[in-house]
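Q: What would this complex look like in 3D?
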Amino acid sequence: MLKESLMDIIRKYTMLVAFILFLIIYFFVSGWKAASLTNILSIVLRTCVVTILGIGQSLVIIGGGIDLSIGAQIDHAIGLMTILYPFKDLLGGFTGIVVITLIITTTFGFINGLIIYKTKLPPFIVTFAMMLILESLATLYSYYGVMGIWGFKPWLISLFSFLPSPTVSVPILFTFLILLAASIIARRTIYGYSIYAIGSSYKAATASGVPIGKVTLITYSLSGFMGGLAWFMYSLQVGYIFAYTAGTIYLLDSIAVPVIGGIDIMGGTGYVPMLFIGALFVSTISNFIILMKINPLLEYAVKGIIIIVALIFSRLLKK
Amino acid sequence: MLHQLGKIFSDFSLFFFLVIIVVAGQLSNPLFLSPATIYTIIRGTACLGFLALGEVLVIISRGIDLSVGQIACLSSVIVVYFMIMFQSPLIAIVLTLLMGLGFGVLSGTLVNIGIPPFLATLGTMWIAQGLAEYLGVKPTPVPSHFSSFNIISFETPPVTAIILILISVISLEILATKVPIGRYIYYVGGNEYGTYISGVDVKLIKYIIYSFSGFSASIGGILLTSWTTSGYKWVALGQEFTAIAASVIGGASLAGGEGRVFKTIIAMVLLITISSLYTFLGLPPTLFFLTEGFLILGAALFQIKFRRG
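A: Here is my prediction, written as structure tokens for the whole assembly.
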């Protein structure tokens, strides 16, 4: 009985099992050096941006769509910052700039949702076009904007001063709070049920009176908002603003992370907190490459091989 | 009547777009339609077209292939690497094509054991990217005694490029629309389970599509090397998105079962023409992506409007 239910859990969370196995092997191979608190904290710290992006992305994916513009939102926000910075005093300091940027990213998400709902075009195409537009705007801004803005990080940290230990844990605590909120929204609210309903069957959801328009708009706006927050976390990590294209890298990660965590890319199923396991997995592989002194040029190759092995393993476990 | 006209227009809309762009370019600068520009467009289409050819077949079968750009990059690095190692362009080309085929087979295997195409090809993309960055730290020029390898670059009417792309497009178009195995690609995309039930070997079809995609991406990479005369790890960085864009503008639907090979190539010509027009007018290249974005939206809206009739 107990054995059967254990097997059930393993089947359900195959990727978690694969991750724990990888972690044990990693810890063992590194001679428990990797298991130190500092190292684990640095692994978790590296997941922050991707986790926040992944939250927006997984809400969209569960609802049967995909948001390709979410990575470009980061680049666009960075570009926007370089434009807005000269008017810093006019807009109310960094706080004003951050608020404006968050509003603008949310607006672009809203536009995505509006086009998808009104025209019934596939989300892939709409958000793909939006990605190109945002990337283009970002580069355009950086033609005219200032390069390199310092003093952003101390301000951000002072913003978080109500949280304990502002140097290391601020982003982690912030990310966990948002992850918790998103998990509760997805599983405990009517809006959450609606995205699962739309993702599993659009027709059935329409027939049973789910307000598809409203839900689509909220989902894509949230995704845009998460893109803005991810920019925020990214700036917190990098420490200064610099027009640099991080978007395409984060885009693929933001989709890979929920899918590795077991959220079905076709929509309708999946458990939002599991995306954190996916984020941890990817981040641990990067950490593995650094700590095991593997040539950093091979990072992607090692990442690809480990992810493929884990996927095959989780497939075999499911059978 | 009006509907039929609309349908004809939608079939040839890309041609109209292309004509409008060319006329606009010609009006803004009479030198636009010079042989040099046309040759550049042809060369670009021949190189990037091969990425799109594999991509569109995968998209028709309701998958997606993210690895084409990085396979092309790796091919570019590796073909020069092998050329120096074996002192023979022929062996280098054959080995590189086999490498591309191998990546395609790997993607196909992963997709066939049930991994979503997005993740499977992301994995192969990462492996190709890692190997390309590891092997090609610096751009390596093609050795001077093999300068005949740079045929795409030095041939002034680019005959080889034209022949290669034309033969590939025509044969693939016939394959996809007339031959049973090509039709099965559409069936797999339209209704995979139904195709399986009616006795088609779906797994074999998927193996063929993904292997072809890897293979044709490596052809694209070799041609790019021949054009740029050096092996460079970032030669096709991010071009998987151009390939996807061309497929979508050419009428492929990511829900599978739709899309045409020759329309994809025309969409590729369109994209490259617009980008060379922008270079010609001295506009910032970033504006090109803006246009590309609106073009994709417009093309998709247009198709939806006329498909519903």
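A: To summarize the key features: Chain A has one domain: 49-272. Residues 49-272 of chain A form one domain.
Q: Very helpful, thank you.
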